[in-house]
Specification:
Elements lengths: L1 E2 L19 H10 L9 E6 L2 E6 H4 L6 H7 L14 E3 L6 H10 L2 E2 L7 H10 L3 H17 L70 E13 L8 E2 L5 E6 H8 L3 E2 L11 E7 L4 H10 L3 E13 L10 E13 L1
Parallel strand pairs: 2-4
Antiparallel strand pairs: 1-5, 2-3, 6-7, 6-8, 6-12, 8-10, 9-10, 11-12
């Protein structure tokens, strides 16, 4: 989806955008502030753990924005940095890619099934980009007016749309005509459901339960861990912390259960009705993932684990140590 803009900035630099009163005058004003010569031409940004490399003239392209003030009105020593010297911003690293795209040429192109418009609008307001925030709000309003209470093909809701009326589990029986001598009532069908207003039929994998309007489906949690055991299996085994907990399943279900704790950087822009095996969690505790799944109504259906062993010298460790590596998956389902 493209959000058009009649006022085009200078691509990748030229200083302040013309729409914001830029041009040569804007560049001169920034230079007079003493910030232009203090920053390198290429800047590295760490935004919520995601690293971006861009030109400084890109981040200062919109006058009076937060980034413009940071990189033209302040000195580099005044800005927070991470351990590798990158300028640090404690914001959503996934959504910042769209902020940066907008700063390049004052246009924004969103994926066809982009569920984060409201969060992106919040980021635009934080970075003090009023024109971007206004156009996002208009796009959301237009989408809501065109598709009120819309359902995707799999029955999942768009992020910025109101919930639909509750669905019935089976087709309602039709009343008998003529006091029992008419048509026979239709039998309930276990393979489809219909909304009270006569909406489209849904297959069992698409149906919602009547209580909370929650989608049924499966989510698989996986993790890989390792530990080292010395000679004669001594008690002082060295366990390594679980590096990453992966999430496999339907995108809409994963976002519903894990919300802000879900890292989507390896598979961004995935439509809600599609499946993915590339998400992982921002925390490293299996119990925390289990708690979230339990609170969302999931129960464990199966689990499996595999393991391998290698001698430590092959891995650069002591000669008598053995390194065990395991991979475990837990399958959760919600009916």
């Amino acid at each position: 989806m493209a959000l058009a803009d009649s006022a085009r900035g200078l691509p990748n630099g030229g200083g302040v955008s013309p729409a914001a009163g830029g041009g040569a005058a804007g560049s001169g004003a920034a230079a007079a502030a003493g910030g232009w010569s203090s920053f390198p031409e290429i800047v590295e940004l760490n935004v919520g753990g995601q690293v971006y490399v861009t030109r400084r003239c890109t981040v200062v392209s919109v006058r009076d924005s937060l980034l413009w003030r940071m990189f033209s009105q302040q000195q580099p020593s005044e800005l927070p940095r991470d351990s590798k010297g990158r300028f640090f911003l404690d914001r959503d690293g996934f959504l910042f890619r769209y902020i940066l795209d907008y700063l390049r040429d004052l246009q924004l192109v969103l994926p066809e099934h982009f569920p984060e418009r409201s969060r992106l609008q919040r980021e635009a307001e934080y970075f003090q980009l009023p024109d971007l925030a206004r156009r996002l709000a208009q796009a959301r309003a237009a989408a809501a007016a065109a598709r009120p209470a819309a359902l995707h093909r799999d029955g999942s809701l768009c992020a910025d749309e109101p919930p639909p009326p509750p669905l019935l589990g089976y087709l309602e029986a039709e009343p008998l005509e003529g006091g029992g001598g008419g048509a026979v009532a239709s039998a309930p069908s276990p393979t489809a459901s219909r909304s009270p207003s006569g909406g489209p039929l849904l297959t069992p994998s698409q149906s919602l339960d009547g209580a909370g309007g929650r989608r049924s489906g499966y989510i698989t949690i996986g993790y890989r861990g390792s530990y080292t055991i010395g000679r004669e299996a001594q008690a002082d085994a060295k366990f390594r912390r679980v590096a990453r907990i992966t999430v496999c399943g339907k995108t809409a279900l994963a976002k519903e259960v894990f919300g802000e704790t879900l890292n989507e950087s390896r598979d961004p822009d995935r439509p809600p009705e599609r499946y993915t095996a590339r998400y992982y969690l921002k925390f490293n505790f299996l119990e925390q993932a289990f708690d979230r799944l339990s609170e969302a109504g999931f129960r464990m259906a199966a689990c499996s684990s595999t393991g391998t062993c290698a001698f430590a010298p092959e891995q650069g460790g002591p000669a008598d140590d053995k390194i065990w590596t395991s991979y475990t998956e837990y399958v959760f389902c919600r009916d």
